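Trying the structure run again after the queue cleared.
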Amino acid sequence: MDNLNPNELTVPQKIGQIVMPRLNFNNPDALPYAKEIVQRFHVGGFIIFGGDRKQVKRATEELQSISITPLFFSCDAERGVGQIISGATRFPFTMSLGAIGDEELVYRQARFIAEELRECGLNLVFAPVMDVNINPENPIINIRSYGDDPSLVSRLGAAFIEGCQDRGVLACAKHFPGHGGGAIDSHIALPQLAQSRENLYTCDIIPFKRAIEGGVASIMVAHIAVPKIDPKGVPATTSREIVRGLLINELGFKGLVITDSFYMGAIANLGAEEHTARLSILSGCDIILDPKEPIRIMERLSEMVKSGEISESLLDGALEKIVATKREWLNNQPLKSPFDETYGRDLITEIAHRSVCLLKGGKLKSKNVTVYILDVTQAEEDVSESFVNHLSEFEIGIEKWSFTARDSETFLPPRETNDGRAIICLVYTSVAAWKGHTELSESFKELLRRVSNLKCERVLISFGSPYIVRGFESFNTILCAFDRLDACQCAVADVLLGRREAQGKLPVRL
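Done. Tokens:
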């Protein structure tokens, strides 16, 4: 790397360095293709999807060995490497950490994530999410955010960045200038944010300013339009006013500016990929992430530089930042202490126990319960198994009913239970690209309304979005966790049984 002189690279090699294609291990041809574009186009790195730990590690080592420059290997490990790579650790959704509010815990979690990333050969993580989730209807940020308080998001996000970068992995604060106010999943279409410049500065921008002050290595720009900043209504990723004007000039960010994925509908729907990539480069972005057609985009961008549509001096500016970042970070020094997988499991348990929020009520009174399972995520397996099994270990008699949205339209719960039986409603939601599993169907809402008016003991538990409990205040007991992981379900069961105190504080306003 020390011998690399950006001025000695050809235009196609320079273009290669600013493009970060995907390496999807679910595709058997992915690795041969990756080798080809490393050798032919000198791509600067890859975003990883799928694979297991050993497979990913072997591939990253092989690709590093044939590249003329060190490669970035990145992934969306907001909740840990297990979010992407099988056999690795997956933590509860980020809002769980918001409910705890402990920077030291976030720092420890980030250090662990960084160590596991390095164990798999990765060196860049697209986290933390610094979005302030100010819109309860947000279908794609929601529980991926620490909460709706910019101060809380700033504190915890900064702790994540510090923990991660202390262990030699670049962090990436996302999604600038703030995706928390959106009402549309940008994987599907382009969200239009109504925020004024003043609104942004008093809320959404605050965590990014904190990230910049904390030395975050990179920032990801969102595919969202903010017409009051850029009246053209274009995605921030292609907006000179937002990237160069707001992020680089006003906030003084000197690190890498990375686009969000080019697979996403908000950008893909705008036309030819090379056209939007050119606009992103002109706006001030340094790396084009996850193009659908990497070879075509690299060839077309090279032609644009030669024709003058993109100035080579602008390209050189991006390249100098990339080279400087690689020199600083990609030294592949071994970790001083070995990676401890069991520590990750302990962290999951700690986060699960400390994040349970009791909004109303308390210990379960009845020894017999009917459990209604409302799984918005439509998982094929029995999502409630760990919760129900944990209750049954403590001699609670259980009857289970699982509902689809269609089932619940016609179901009439009994007006009262003759044996003093309680009814526990478990609601499972999640956040995932292109899916939007955060909202209850009208039929599920109606079922909850019917249960809430019964004369028996009534318990409502949300595993996922806390916003779904709004409007159901007449339940005797209301509990929130932010993930359906076994540890979270057992932690909630323990609080309901009176075996543990709920320690979490809801990090969003309902």
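The mean pLDDT is 94. Worth checking whether this holds up in the mutant runs.
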